[in-house]
Amino acid sequence: MNTNTPNRLTIRRPDDWHLHFRDGDIMRGVVPYTARQFGRAIVMPNLSPPVTIAAMAAEYRDRILAAVPAGVDFTPLMTCYLTDATDPDDLARGAAQGIFTAAKLYPANATTNSAHGVSDVAKLAPVLARMEAEGIVLCIHGEVTDNDIDVFDREAEFIARHLRGIIADFPNLKVVFEHITTADAVEFVQNCGPNVAATITPQHLHINRNAMLVGGIQPHNYCLPVAKRETHRLALRAAATSGSPKFFLGTDSAPHLRKVKETSCGCAGIFNAPFALESYLAVFEEEGALEHFEGFASLHGPAFYGLPVNADSITLERAEVPVPDSLELTGEDIVPWHAGQTLGWRIAD
What we know:
Layout: E1 8-12, E2 16-19, H1 24-35, E3 40-43, H2 54-67, E4 75-81, H3 88-96, E5 100-105, H4 125-134, E6 137-140, H5 154-169, E7 175-177, H6 183-191, E8 196-200, H7 202-206, H8 210-213, H9 230-240, E9 247-249, H10 258-261, H11 276-286, H12 293-305, E10 313-322, E11 327-329, E12 332-334, E13 342-347
Parallel strand pairs: 2-3, 3-4, 4-5, 5-6, 6-7, 7-8, 8-9
Antiparallel strand pairs: 1-10, 10-13, 11-12
Helix pairs in contact: 1-2, 3-4
């Protein structure tokens, strides 16, 4: 029986299929924000040093679990940071032991702590072949990093130069095109078979590139991949709210303290974990697609990864929720996504 009303929405507990916890004190400070909303999360491996082998992933998982508040049921799903020297056997063993849920392809220098990423996608062929054979999901940061390619064109160029080839060469490999930002990516994913899906962040549903640049530089709207033109934002909103199982929730929440965002060379990343579900739900309501929210947030991701949906549920209710201008983290300030704004939904107690 559906008990949802115009003022309350109950769905299976969702999962976050792409986010960053960092490590140390920052990790311990941000894990509770995710754990209060999500049952599981795909955890990015771009630490310093990166999580490149199963033993490192197991140790990182233990540190995350130690930061989960008492009485909260939350499972971090670990990923392997692929490099030119990744050992296919270690990756396969880690997946078989339940340590690795996926592996992450970062083109070298594409984003935070990605200097050790893949310098030549062709070098990954033995690893991708093993992943295809073992059923290990490949998560991709889909941008080229050549200096002569405009930052706003790097996603489309990655599709043309690399992604089409990966899909053609490894047709049974499960691929998640992460945090897509363009109509090009939407069209590509829609035209691929069922082994290709994509995550979409809340910020790319809410803002276009004007939000970074109009009225002065707006560092808290700066992330990688950067927000694109309005036509791309509208394509992302249409995809996310369509009900298609190819698109699902991945916040790409990326905490950086205010002092390293508001500086002469500010870090890329938007810390959206504190109000992630409320942010997504605002988009689905604006698009008249509340009936598709549970699929996007709670059902499509587990189906793609071959995992069960969460057994418990979560309820959101209409309420005015003012987002603070900043939050305290490790004794300093961090600015949350939607800072200073008022959202229209909250998670019910």
